[in-house]
């Protein structure tokens, strides 16, 4: 019996029900993994679906701390960081409830106002959770404090729109966070808490605000997800579009479009304005071939996978892996449209929240949204359909579990109104049919889907954790 088969047997047993409790196995849990999002012929298999306190209309980035066996989701619908127990596979609690901006709408009430909603980006180290909010603040929360005392700091980066995605150094002592919706956008380098038992983050923790030279970054463009590479000791931040890449290109054009770049930052020698890439210092902006990236994650061997999307670079149909040291790159065919991307140490695979993936011409589904799976050789292993808004993904390397939020499903009306903004439109058989997300979740309220890659089922060896 493979480990996956054992896991299925375990979750189907009455002993498991007694251990996990009715809340985590209502529906029942395994029965929820149905439809196109729960194929039986993939190496990455749907294990369960975890309900959250409120219907999941809007959310952003997610994170896993395998040492604490916890998954964290920036849940705007619940105005909190939702925490899931990755060992028991159940909702645990909400951190910072009511302290964030929550889900905001435009003046007409027809669309989400992402630029002012929150929470957004989230990262953790030990007891410390760092989250970006819709009012340009970094919120620092303590997992080991009582809920009423969890918020230890709220530090403004000086903008008027959301503090978005972020990354931490391996020791948790430096944090880089992006204000993607500012004009111009900027990143903020903070001193963070590391393993300190008390919070040290405050206004004086800002080391440097970092802008990109206007000769490189077009007006009204953004900077996106950063990642940390411990070998080169640099932050690498996705830039969706840069000027003159290739020469004579037009930003945002359908043809002759400009590709993106990768901002390289040395936390020990940050610059107020970063310009063209300098190989001597390994800092500055690296032009990327055929990729307008949102997400960024660090894999083995100094390799970074960037979540390219045609929303930034219209001709793009591939994903990019680039070496942090040499800057040599390789294209991953068959997958694009990613936002958050995540490298799982446990199975040497990248997982892509590809909500904007291109729908195959013969697909009966309403959207191309998928969970992409790429191996360490930069080859696409498989794609698994998801709800139309599933742009967030994180993995627990100790348990080889992959967590993917699924948007709730509500009737779509014209014009849109706040009750259905963010609804899953990835229908399975045309208008009015069940959505991919509702079949995965076993309800219309959305959920966090849990997938597992059982390395016993293929030839890639045992799962492991090297970090």
Describe the protein.
The strands form 7 sheets. The chain has a 5-stranded mixed sheet, with no helix packed on it. A 4-stranded antiparallel sheet has the order 1-29-28-27. It has a 4-stranded antiparallel sheet with strand order 2-3-4-5. Helices cover 7% and strands 34% of the residues. The protein contains 5 helices and 29 strands. The chain is mainly β. The chain has one domain (31-457): Methylamine Dehydrogenase, Chain H (7 Propeller).
List the helices and strands and how they pair.
Elements: H1 3-12, H2 14-20, H3 22-25, H4 29-32, E1 44-50, E2 59-65, E3 70-75, E4 80-85, E5 90-95, E6 122-125, E7 128-132, E8 137-142, E9 151-156, E10 166-168, E11 174-179, E12 186-191, E13 206-212, E14 226-229, E15 234-239, E16 261-265, E17 273-274, E18 284-287, E19 293-298, E20 303-308, E21 318-323, E22 329-333, E23 341-344, E24 349-354, E25 370-375, E26 380-385, E27 394-396, E28 401-406, H5 436-441, E29 447-453
Parallel strand pairs: 13-17
Antiparallel strand pairs: 1-29, 2-3, 3-4, 4-5, 6-7, 7-8, 8-9, 10-11, 11-12, 12-13, 14-15, 15-16, 16-18, 19-20, 20-21, 21-22, 23-24, 24-25, 25-26, 27-28, 28-29
